[in-house]
Amino acid sequence: MDDGLLTSAEVAARLKSTTRFVRRLVAERRIAYVKVGRLVRFEPADVETYIRAQRIEPTDRAQIRAWLRGAA
After folding, report:
1. pLDDT value of position 1
2. Could you give the CA distance from residue 20 to residue 13 in angstroms, rounded to a whole number?
3. pLDDT reported for residue 32
4. Cβ proximity of 43 and 34 under 8 Å
5. What is the DSSP string of 6-64?
6. What does pTM read for this prediction?
């Protein structure tokens, strides 16, 4: 039965991390998940959303200087 939901191990492989890290994301409610009985499963779109939300864009020195001037 392949309904498209991912296991913690599959998400960990996608994130190139450990299953413990995935369980921590679930415990901290930092990633969306689906409970199937007592099992935790993930929709692929939710994993991609999590990855996009963690993206940090590079900045250059001019942007940093402008930000520092605005913060002072």
Report:
1. 42
2. 12
3. 97
4. yes
5. B-HHHHHHHHTS-HHHHHHHHHTT-S--EEETTEEEB-HHHHHHHHHHT------HHHH
6. 0.78
